[in-house]
From TrEMBL:
InterPro entries: PCMT (IPR000682), SAM-dependent_MTases_sf (IPR029063)
UniProt superkingdom: Bacteria
Enzyme Commission identifier(s): 2.1.1.77
Job of this protein: Catalyzes the methyl esterification of L-isoaspartyl residues in peptides and proteins that result from spontaneous decomposition of normal L-aspartyl and L-asparaginyl residues. It plays a role in the repair and/or degradation of damaged proteins.
Localization: Cytoplasm
Residues of the active site: 64
A GO CC term assigned to this protein in UniProt: cytoplasm
Swiss-Prot/TrEMBL GO biological process terms: methylation; protein repair
Protein name: Protein-L-isoaspartate O-methyltransferase
Keywords: Cytoplasm, Methyltransferase, S-adenosyl-L-methionine, Transferase
C-alpha cells in the first residue's frame, strides 16, 4: 500500500472532524494529518482507515479510534524530549503519534503477534520508538523508569500501582479505568506519595489483561 494525495485529503477531513469534536492541540492535529493510518491496518480496511473509528488489528485487539488517540495524547501535554511509556503498542499508531509530537517512546505489548508485526512496521515507516518490548504492561518498565508520562491504551479495572510508582514527580498517567465502560483518568504525581486524580468522561477500550507470558 502507498500513501497518496487521496489519503492526504482523507486525513485533512479527519483532522476537521477531530477539531469539531474538541481537539485543539496543534502538534497532535499535525501528527494525525501526517501519519498514514491506513498503513497500520490490513489492506481490506484501506477505504475506512480515516473514519473516526476503531478497527480490528488481529489477536482480538483494535486500533484505537483517532479521537481517543488525540484525546489521550492531548491530556499528556508532551514536551519535546519527554520520556513516555505506552502500555499496549497494538498497531503502533498511537506510538507513531507520540513520536511525532516529540516524545521519546517506550512501549510494551503483551500479544507477541502484534509486538512482532509492529516492531517491523514502525521502522519501515521511518518511526523510531526508543524501545519496543513484549511483556505485561501492568508492571510497567521498571528498568527504564521514571517517566515524564505514561499512557495506557487498554481498559484497566484499576490503576496499576507499578505505573504510578514509575512516574517522575510532576509526571502524568493517562489511563482508561473501568470494566465494561472506562472513565478516562489523568493521574498527576504531586509528590513521593501524593497523587491528584482528574476524570474526563466515558470511553470504550479492549481490556488490559494481566500476566499471560
Ligand atoms: N495503541 C494501540 C491500541 C491497541 S488496543 C493502537 O492504537 O493500535 C490495546 C492493546 O493493549 C492491545 O494490543 C493489547 O494486546 C494490549 N494489552 C492489553 N493488556 C496489556 C498488558 N497487560 N500489557 C501490554 N499490553 C497490553
Amino acid at each position: 500500500m502507498k500513501d497518496t494525495s487521496k489519503h492526504q485529503g482523507l486525513r485533512n477531513q479527519l483532522v476537521t472532524v477531530l477539531q469539531q469534536k474538541g481537539i485543539t492541540n496543534k502538534s497532535v492535529l499535525e501528527a494525525i494529518s501526517k501519519i498514514p493510518r491506513h498503513l497500520f491496518l490490513n489492506s481490506s480496511f484501506e477505504d475506512y482507515a480515516y473514519q473516526d473509528k476503531a478497527f480490528p488489528i488481529g489477536a482480538g485487539q483494535t486500533i484505537s479510534q483517532p479521537y481517543t488517540v488525540a484525546f489521550q495524547t492531548e491530556l499528556l501535554e508532551v514536551k519535546k524530549g519527554d520520556k513516555v511509556l505506552e502500555i499496549g503498542t497494538g498497531s503502533g499508531y498511537q506510538t507513531a503519534v507520540l513520536c511525532m509530537v516529540g516524545a521519546v517512546v517506550y512501549s510494551v505489548e503483551r500479544q507477541n503477534e502484534l509486538f512482532k508485526k509492529t516492531s517491523l512496521l514502525l521502522p519501515k515507516l521511518g518511526i523510531r520508538a526508543k524501545h519496543l518490548s513484549f511483556g505485561d504492561g501492568y508492571k510497567g518498565l521498571p528498568n527504564y523508569a521514571p517517566f515524564d508520562s505514561i499512557i495506557v491504551t487498554a481498559g484497566a479495572p484499576e490503576i496499576p500501582k507499578a505505573l504510578m510508582s514509575q512516574l517522575k514527580i510532576g509526571g502524568k498517567l493517562v489511563i482508561p479505568v473501568g470494566e465494561d465502560i472506562q472513565v478516562m483518568t489523568l493521574v498527576i504525581r504531586k509528590g513521593e506519595t501524593q497523587f491528584e486524580k482528574h476524570e474526563f468522561g466515558d470511553f470504550r477500550f479492549v481490556p488490559l489483561l494481566e500476566d499471560k507470558n
